[in-house]
Design goal:
Glycerol-3-phosphate (1)-acyltransferase; 242 residues; 8 helices; 7-stranded mixed sheet
């Protein structure tokens, strides 16, 4: 049953309604500078990943059929996740060894005006702070020429959510959207070095809109300092405390 069918669209709307009801019941959610997300066209949303609720945040905020979310292929073994994923545009991929076919599919989606939501870290951070990013987002952005939209999420840590539910408290969740930026095409020489630099750039753009305690391994990065100084000189709010 594809998303093109009337039944598929209704099921998607029901699932999104369910996500909104659940999140509004257990949390107070604030979304900042959402206008930085392009209204149309291909782009990559690069977000930090600190809890299972992170995926739901995008369906909570956006009622869009053009947003696809790569998910670790291990979850495809779960029938209920396959069912939900077919209706919420999950792409099941090997997060450690994405093959050329998968990368071409993702670029093709963007070329057709769709967007991708990817956590460059490749897995949830157990500490809640940023861990080292993987090169997938940087490669896709540099190869395709489409912009990267950094997104910072706070307050969705699994342990925090569960503890608050146990004590009948609402969690405080924030989602902050940074300005889109572009990465230059990869050079012919020292591609690995350039890709590592681009990956750091992506992660530092996310770190720049996170509260300090969430910046993790990028807290002292020179590129982050540049971005924070640039934002300060332009009078921009760089992060929101959770």
């Amino acid at each position: 049953m594809g998303m093109g069918s009337r039944t598929g669209r209704l099921m998607r709307k029901f699932l999104r309604w369910l996500i909104i009801i659940i999140l509004d019941t257990i949390a107070d959610v604030e979304v900042f500078t959402v206008d930085n997300v392009p209204a149309s066209g291909g782009f990559v949303i690069a977000t930090n990943h600190i809890g299972f609720l992170d995926i739901g945040m995008f369906h909570y905020q956006f009622d869009r059929y053009d947003m696809f979310i790569p998910v670790a292929e291990k979850w495809e073994k779960q029938a209920w996740i396959r069912f939900i994923g077919a209706r919420l545009n999950f792409l099941f991929v090997d997060r450690f060894n994405p093959d050329l076919k998968a990368l071409r599919k993702m670029i093709g989606l963007m070329e057709n005006g769709n967007s991708l939501v990817i956590a460059p870290e490749g897995t949830r951070s157990r500490t809640g702070a940023l861990i080292e990013g993987k090169p997938g987002v940087a490669f896709l952005a540099a190869r395709s020429g489409f912009p990267v939209v950094p997104v910072a999420i706070t307050g969705t840590e699994d342990r925090v959510i569960l503890e608050n539910i146990k004590h009948f408290r609402k969690s405080k969740i924030t989602v902050t959207v940074g300005k889109p930026f572009y990465l230059s095409p990869l050079p012919r020489e020292d591609r690995e070095g350039a890709l590592a630099k681009y990956t750091d750039d992506v992660m530092c753009h996310i770190a720049a809109i996170l509260p300090e305690r969430y910046r993790g391994v990028y807290a002292g990065h020179a590129r982050l300092r540049e971005l924070l100084e640039q934002s300060s000189s332009e009078g921009q709010v760089t992060s929101h405390q959770c």
